[in-house]
Amino acid sequence: QVQLVESGGGLVQAGGSLRLSCAASGRTFSMYAMGWFRQAPGKEREFVAKIRWTGGTTDYADSVKGRFTISRDNAKSTVYLQMNSLKPEDTAVYYCAVRSVPFGAFGSWGQGTQVTVSS
User: In the prediction, which pLDDT does 29 show?
Assistant: First the structure.
């Protein structure tokens, strides 16, 4: 089992930046990929970005391409989400999760961190 703890959320004005962190502990050797997701009030949870733990291949939702960057620090078992040019529609609770096998489901969800972007 992997435990995840997100941090770094907050209130920022439109156009600003935030960096989220997700620290993993436990069976981190079993991680194949890590991902960031978000859920806005009244909406379904949606995919934001993911990164393979080995090799660092990344993938992004169209809505964040060119503005968000996902990265990882293998030594710290931590994944980051650098968010630039933030928009009010980026307001949501951001969660990280782990994928243990290729094409497997994401799980071991963290508690989430709130990001609020004011206009």
Answer: 80
